[in-house]
Amino acid sequence: MDKLWVLLCTGLVFLMQAGFMCLESGLTRSKNSINVAVKNFADFGISVLLFWAFGYGIMFGASQGSWFGGDNFFFSADTQGDMTVFFLFQAMFCGTATTIISGAIAERIKFLAYTIVVILVSGLIYPFYGHWVWNSSGWLKQLGFIDFAGSTVVHGIGAWVGFATLIIIGSRQGRFSDKGEVNKIQGSNLPFAVLGALFLWLGWLGFNGGSTFAFNNQVPKIILNTVLAGVGGMIMAMIFSQVKEKRVEVEELINGSISGLVAITAGCHIIPNPLAIIVGMTGAAMAKFVSQALIRAKIDDAVDAVAVHGGAGLWGTISVALFGDLALMKMPISRIELLLIQLLGIVIAMVWAFGLTWLILKPLNQIFPLRVSLEAEELGLNVAEHEAKTDTYELLNVMDLQAKTHDLTLRVPVESFTEVGHIATRYNQVMDALEQNHRQNMESLEELYAVTATAVSAVENKQFSPDDFDAFCDRPDELGILAQALQEMITIINNQQEQLQVLSGETPENHNQEIRILQDTVVEILTTRFGQITSQLNVSIHKIKNLSEIADLLKKAISAKSIDDFL
């Protein structure tokens, strides 16, 4: 074993953890991005600890009946120094298999429940299946099953565990409507997701290249196959997206390229370079087919992890028998026999990973619900699970509170030199202007109430004094114009009242004259307040001969807000 080469590849495979973190955080909503990131961080630590304690021993220890290893528990470099680099490399693989699950079940599972899934995978499911395939004495290995770098051992196991967990915990709120509609949940940061995909590509070079355990003549071919398959998957996804959606979607490109990488992983050492592109393209097609099948079944995979790692991993494992160079396998076996063996290994992985996960988590979910509450899911797992608030959360929280309370004095905390901080600053400036405008409107409204109350009081008490409106007449706005008009009308009324007093006590002709004066006064008030009135209304007013009715009409002319209100 070339220790320097394997150690370098160990670092590259470790970089895949960062790749998965970026990818999954970018493809999920911002209110859950911290939760997704910390799950990727935590599952690596838990999986490596369990792999060190007994996972490595189960997987690579002395085989007990070809089923599991019986030694090398609590690995120590002091006693097994020559194998330390190998242990580290395999620990990274265990971490990769575990973190695949995180993306599939993102945005709805409790953090503690996720740690239980991690323990189940890294401490039990992955090591046992890994022993069957990669331990020289494992029973699938003895049959001739080939999975060079883990299309099924790593990616398939992670996908099938995620699949079982998805069925148990259900889909995210709003993903599928009651009418059967499929609603896309947009990721919060697609450039971040693309960065994660690039990290994965880089890590995959060590993932596949390091599985030779020596920097030999196979390595360049393996790395070239890896790159070509990734490119082939990307091209196929681009074509599918353009044909179906009439546009190239970012998520399709990301998942297509990763599907190609997953597919080539099983046979990257024995598949000819030109065929690596075919394997990558068909792997992406298989992933798309599985993704559509899951959607039709209303199974909500947040990042298409089951389709990408399970579907493409399945196809990649079969591709070993379909496209592999039999001469390089050094086994006296036909292509048909190898195909049957590959299918057997795939079925065993699905039954073992899916079945054991279902048998353990299904009853556990009845006792300890794995899924967060609907309130926590709506709030977001960043806050609900970790109390990790972001400036975006603070902004939305204040906006929601203002919408409920109508309190214009609330302001958003500003985090300087960030995009959300700039938005918060502008939002606060808008709220300042709204609050000032609202205050001015309230003051104007109060003054309008005062003018109206003065006019109504004058009408009710029959005490008309133009001086009552002096405080408002100097205003340059509409309120000042109204006060001036009222002042003019009151002056007219007072003049008419003086004339009525002169005529009081005289003949019926004088009484008729009094009514005529009141009728003219009503017409003049209406004309002053609302403009020229119709001749029909003028005639109707002059037909009224009762002094009391005319007086009531006069009050109505003064208090009416519009000509329609008067009518």
UniProtKB/TrEMBL annotation:
Keywords: Ammonia transport, Membrane, Transmembrane, Transmembrane helix, Transport
Coiled coil segments of this chain: none
Any single biological process term in GO: ammonium homeostasis
Pfam families reported for this sequence: Ammonium_transp (PF00909)
Transmembrane stretches, start-end: 5-23, 44-63, 83-104, 111-129, 149-169, 190-207, 222-240, 261-286, 306-328, 340-361
Membrane topology type: Multi-pass membrane protein
Record GO terms (molecular function): ammonium channel activity
InterPro entries: Ammonium/urea_transptr, Ammonium_transpt, Ammonium_transpt_CS, NH4_transpt_AmtB-like_dom
Entry's family note: Belongs to the ammonia transporter channel (TC 1.A.11.2) family.
Name used for this protein in its record: Ammonium transporter
Organism (species): Cyanobacterium aponinum 0216
Top-level taxonomy: Bacteria, Bacillati, Cyanobacteriota, Cyanophyceae, Oscillatoriophycideae
Underlying gene: amt
